[in-house]
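Input record (one chain):
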Amino acid sequence: MKLQYLRKVYIIFIFLLVSILLVINLDLKEKNKFINLNNYNRATLTIDYNQKYNNDDFYKLITLSQKYNILLTKIETRYQDQKLTNLIYVSIDVQDALKLMNLKYEVLSNKTEDSSNIYAATKKSNDKLLKYKLDDILHNDNFAIFSFKKLIDNQGYLFSDYQIFYENEQEYIEYINQIKEIFGDDLKVNIQEQNIQSSNEILISLLILIIAGLFYLIIEVFSIYNISKKLVIMKLLGFSNFMILKKVVKKDVIFYISLSMLLIIIDFIIIPYKANIFSFIIIYVLIILIFLGLSYLSIHIICYKKSMIELLKNKLIISKLIKLCGAFKIIINSLLLFSLPLFLLFLLLLFLLLLLLLLLFLLL
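The corresponding structure, as predicted from the sequence alone:
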C-alpha cells in the first residue's frame, strides 16, 4: 500500500512538473518575441557615441528603415518605479510593431493620439499615453514599447546598438549603403543568428523529464514486482503481457485522465492564451501513453525469460533491478557529455535517485 501511494504521488508530481515546464516554455517564447522576429534575418548596427550626429541624422535613419521595410529596434534597461524595465524603441507605428512581433495585447483607450507618443507595456499605469496593455503569462516581465520619434524628441540616448530585422536581402544591402552615407563607412554592422530559445533551457527541460521518467520506471518495476503472484495466475490463465497490462493499469488510466482534466482546467484559468490549451492536451495524452509504455516495459522486465517458479519465488529480481539502474547510469552520463554546466543538477538528481531506491527497499 505504501508503494502504491508513493507511485500515485510521483505520478502527480510528474504531471505537475510537465505542466510547470510547459508554462515556463510559453513564458520564454513570449519573452523571446520582444527580442527576435520569426522568419526575419537579424543584424546589429552600432552607432559610436564618439561621432557627432544630430537629430536629423536619426530621423533620416527612421525614414530609411520604413522605406526599405526594415524594423529597427533599440533596447534600453532602466530602473523605474523600483523595478527594472526594458524599453524597446521601434522605427514603425507601435501597433504595427505589436502585430509584427506577434504580441497579444488589450487596447486600453480608443482616443486618437499622436502615434509617436503612445506606447504599449506589460504593466498598467495611469499614464494617458499608455494605449496597449501587453499580455504576460506569469506577470514577471516588464517591457514597454515606444516609437523611435519619442526617443529623439525627448533628447534620449541615441547611440549604442540597434537591431535590424529584414526579409529582403537586396533591400537590406541598399539600406546599409544609404545609412553609411549618413553615418560614414566606419559604421559597424554585424549579421546575427536568430536564437529563438536557449539550447541550455531546452536541454535542462529534456534532462529533467528523462530522469523523471527513469524514476517512474524504477517505481513501476518495484510495483509490478510486488504482484508477482498475480502475474503467475494471469500467466497460467494464458494472459499475454499486453492483457496483463490492461488488467494492471485499468484504474490507473482513469486516474491519469482525471488528473489531466484537472490540470487542463487549471491551465485554462491561468493561461491567457486559450489557443495553447490544445497543445497542453496533446502533451498530457503523450504522458499517459508514455506511462502505459513504461508499465508494459516493467511487466516485460519482470516476466522476461522467467519461469512460473521463479516468479513465485521472486528470484533474480534484484539483479535485474541492479542492471536496470546501471543502464540508467549510462544514459545519464551520456546526457552529461552534451552539457557539462549541468553537472550540479545531475548530482542532485542522482542523489534523489539513490534516496528513492533506498526508500523502496525499506518499504519492501
